[in-house]
Amino acid sequence: MKQENIRNFCIIAHVDHGKSTLADRFLEITRTIDKRKMVSQTLDSMDLEREKGITIKLKAVRMAYSLNNEDYQLNLIDTPGHVDFSYEVSRSLAACEGAILVVDVTQGIQAQTVSNVYKALEANLAIIPVLNKIDIDPQASEGLSKELVQTFGFNENDILRVSAKTGEGVEELLKQTILRIPSPKGSDKATLRALVFDSFYHEYLGVVAVIKIEEGKLESALIHKREKIKFLATKAESIPEEIGFFIPARKATETLNTGEVGYVATGLKDIHAVRVGDTIAPEKSNVVPLPGYKEVKPFVFISIYPIENDKFTQLREALEKLSLSDAALAYEPENNSALGFGFRCGFLGLLHGEIVQERLEREYGLELISTTPTVEYKVVLTGGETLYIRDPSTMPERSRIQTLEEPWIKLNIVSPSEYVGNILNLCNDRRGVLIKMDYPSEKKVVFEYELPLAELVYNFFDDLKSTSAGYASLDYEFSSYKPVNAVKMDILVHNQIVEPLSHIVLSSKAEDVGRNLLKKLKEIIPRQQFKVSLQAAVGGKIIAREDIPALRKNVLAKMSGGHRERKDKLLEEQKKGKARLKKFGKVEIPQEAFRQILQS
Question: pTM of the full predicted structure?
């Protein structure tokens, strides 16, 4: 295939605007997949993606199409639309020269629409704006096209109208993709340099790197001659087992030329040897690495433990394999007395954490328990040392802390204008600072806020949907660390600190949070033979207390008579026994109780 006839492009949009359905129509029109074998959301191969109706993993597929008696190779990358998977989008953009921006005419411009346009512009991609679902409301497209022109500066004549469901206008979009998106640059005479933009693990082929050939070519002769390739960042070397491309199943080929997207099966069994954003080159070459991706930084931290402690090794192996296909997942081992051995995992958001946990349970047969989500705090000690705290149990004593800072995010919210008051109240309650508010049209408003990340973690998205009847959408990115008046709140059960229940909370809210938590604990912890005290403490000061009454045994039940003195003697012995139990007894909190309190 001639290099000038190659087109690499991705589809970007807000969640549920029709990306995957449009990809289905492309596969049909190009006859990449037989129509009889087509299923809805063909590229969404995971059960979770189909169940939730969202794309979680980027997918690459090669299509062939003829226009004006010329054959073209179209490499499509389908991308996720939810904010938690924006890192997948940035990786897709790095392997493309153009992007199709899909906007649902029934929903209009949403938060991820804005975010994705700016990402594509930063990557210098050619953007084709498309209004989808015109079969539902043809009239809405006129007003929306003007909104796109006003918001992003597109030329109104360049905006295409399609229905991905019925196929209307899709073939014209495919032709415009060839005409408007440039072919890849790079010399096929140069030394091989290939960008790794995704990877996964195959039981027989080892680590499989999904790549774009930026310069030179990758030939199967390497395999026949047993010549090695190297990964410039990790210094790993391997003899490729297979090269090929996706249709969307793997298909082996003899050569991958400059500009083409495909894969190389490295044969490596060490999953840490291949890193997303790395550069592949011949073993004996001395080339400069391609610009990689910025290091992804997790926003939300959740501890994950296997319910059966002997499954810890299995959990480690599952996380290793999952992290290969999910470059945004970070994890490190930890243990505590209540839950045993597990991992402290970093995610890009709550949905990302939920998806990873579900994948671990489904794909690897694990039963897991997860802790309350937390964020990373920055602590400057009195000695000048800086620490980053992801777990309340590692928080230093207050006397050693000079300053405590929490992460803030820049938050963009797009909403119908009738919900302006509700959203302003919600953000004010969550310590948000309004930066600006724009009206791209009479019926739509765009907010830009600064907000503490901790407030976003605690059900902000659900509250936003409730206050806007489900119409508002949001997008966010890390802004900076700012000082916060927060404290570590310990939970004591029978005078013993229970580390898994420790929280970092605002000083002003510590008492309320402590009381609510103790009320839940009182309902969950089984009663003992002695009275059990539940306490919330900040720096040694008790701020809330609940008591679980003793389980009383009627020692007089078997007495059918006798003197009063005999009864009093038995009761006195029982009283002494309970006092002794209270002094020396220990409260074993069952793991089921931890599961209930952490999930609530």
Answer: 0.75
